[in-house]
Design a protein that fits this description.
The structure is a single chain. By secondary structure, this protein is an alpha/beta fold. Among the domains are: about 180 residues, HUPs (Rossmann fold, 3-Layer(aba) Sandwich); about 90 residues, Anticodon-binding domain of a subclass of class I aminoacyl-tRNA synthetases (Four Helix Bundle (Hemerythrin (Met), subunit A)), CATH 1.20.120.640; about 50 residues, no CATH class. The strands form five sheets. Strands 4-3-9-10 form a four-stranded parallel sheet, sandwiched between helices. Strands 5-6-7-8 form a four-stranded antiparallel sheet, covered by helices on one side. The chain has a three-stranded mixed sheet with strand order 12-11-13, covered by helices on one side. About 0% of the residues have low confidence.
């Protein structure tokens, strides 16, 4: 059983997909107006590991991550550089993707952009106006936060506290200071789209409600983002989604801790970030990847160059063992000694640590305990046996953490994932019709493709086999 900390209920909850065996995830992506930095990399790497672990445990995963490709900051950068806002966004999106590939982050199943979803955003806003959850004010459209009795429960704040703490002035046309914009009237010279309320562009919060609905439906399993997005972004997103569909949109809200520098949030606006280009000039991306996973995803990670240097040494140790054992044959009889436990029970411990709220810090601890045990076994004269076990264990860890050089990890991403989902769905439908001949044939297709196929009360579950 996988347990996850839910930011809304503030407790660990069991993962119970709304559609049995299929986990649907939406996370907030970047606003592409400047160079990618370490703060962008952390949530990307964390969610890459979460996806890989879910697939290893047999779940099908659909992962959506957006780009906010129209925004005040993008417009300002475009004005300063003499480019179009679209050109600025395109350039920094491509840079981000390039760095994610170097970090071995698998691409999302869908990467929607705001500017490609203007029509459904307008339709969504129209539905909110029709439901009296939103109102028009001289070309702007605002959401009525006071009509939502649940408003504030995600962030744990009262409405009055939020408004008072933000010192929000009542803008012309607003009914209440805390109401937020769904549609912004265009200012002279900035990009805009036609709407029933005049030319303008979407507000920040509406985009995620609409795009998650387009790709995952009105309800899905996990919504991710940094802790700094809980308020106002996710609070507002939740409110407008509830007003639209009259149901709770997200089963579990998952928020990652921030990267800090001297206990201050690392961000482009504060000019205290470290770009990925800078880091990759000094460190292998695999080192940066494991450094980002070295603390639990909900904890802050305070940037310190010395810690990166320490992780360079740690990765070198892992790679050195891999080169010693990568040609080893499968292990023979199990060595029943206490000192060998970290070798023989590695997979159980490693996956178990990740089952508990994706605890990568403990999972990495299991990896290095295993490495230590392998060298201890070598010293005791068990090199042949320990080499085979260590090779298998490193491959198991690499399927999820992905740190070994020139080892391809197969976790069912991309177009292949869509094919596997279709095969699993077809097999479940065949079983429900009692067409067991077709179900067995589809099972053989999945097995031949390298998957273990498990029949559960919730339907077919599949997971990649790790070759040893």
């Amino acid at each position: 059983m996988i347990s996850i900390y839910d930011s809304r209920t503030r407790r660990l909850v069991p993962l119970t997909p709304l559609k049995p065996g299929h986990v649907r995830i939406y996370t907030c992506g970047i606003t592409p107006y400047d160079h990618s930095h370490l703060g962008h990399a952390r949530p990307a790497v964390v969610w890459d590991v979460i996806r890989r672990h879910l697939r290893r445990r047999g779940y099908l995963v659909t992962f959506v991550q957006n780009f906010t490709d129209i925004d005040d900051k993008i417009i300002q950068r475009a004005e300063a550089s003499g480019e179009s806002a679209g050109a600025v966004a395109d350039r920094y999106i491509e840079e981000y993707r390039r760095f994610m590939r170097r970090l071995r982050v698998r691409p999302p199943d869908y990467e929607p952009r705001v500017t490609q979803h203007i029509a459904p955003i307008i339709e969504y806003i129209q539905a909110l106006i029709a439901a009296n959850a939103a109102y028009v004010a001289d070309g702007d459209v605002y959401f009525r936060v006071r009509l939502d009795p649940e408003y504030g429960t995600l962030s744990g704040r009262t409405l009055d506290d939020m408004v008072e703490g933000a010192r929000v002035a009542v803008e012309p046309g607003k009914e209440y200071a805390g109401d937020f914009a769904l549609w912004k009237k265009a200012r002279p010279g900035e990009p805009s789209w036609e709407s029933p309320w005049g030319p303008g562009r979407p507000g920040w919060h509406i985009e995620c409600s609409v795009m998650s609905h387009c790709y995952l439906g009105p309800q899905f399993d996990l919504h991710g983002g940094g802790l700094d997005l809980i308020f106002p972004h996710h609070e507002n997103e939740r409110a407008q989604s509830r007003a639209y569909s009259h149901q709770e949109p997200v089963a579990v809200w998952v928020h990652s801790g921030l990267i800090t520098r001297g206990a201050v949030k690392m961000s482009k606006s504060l000019n205290n970030g470290v770009t990925l280009a800078e880091l990759f000039d000094r460190y292998d991306p695999a080192v940066v990847r494991l450094y980002l996973l070295s603390v639990h995803y909900r904890s802050p990670l305070d940037y310190d160059e010395r810690h990166l240097a320490e992780w360079q040494t740690a990765v070198d140790r892992l790679v050195r063992l891999w080169h010693e054992v990568k040609e080893a044959p499968p292990p023979g009889a199990v060595v029943q000694e206490d000192w060998a436990q970290s070798l023989t029970h590695f997979e159980e411990r490693f996956l178990g640590d990740l089952d508990e709220d994706f605890n990568t810090a403990r999972a990495l601890g299991a990896v290095f305990d295993m490495v230590k045990a392998a060298y201890r076994a070598f010293a005791r004269g068990y090199r042949d046996w320990a080499s085979g076990v260590a090779r298998r264990n490193l491959l198991v860890a690499n399927e999820i953490l992905d740190f070994l050089p020139q080892v391809e990890s197969h976790d069912g991403d991309g177009d292949g994932a869509a094919v596997v989902r279709a095969l699993v769905q077809a097999r479940d439908e065949a079983r429900s019709r009692r067409d067991y001949g077709l179900a067995d044939a589809l099972r053989r297709v999945l097995v031949d493709a390298g998957y273990e196929v498990l029949d559960t009360k919730d339907g077919t579950r599949v997971r990649r086999r790790v070759s040893i």
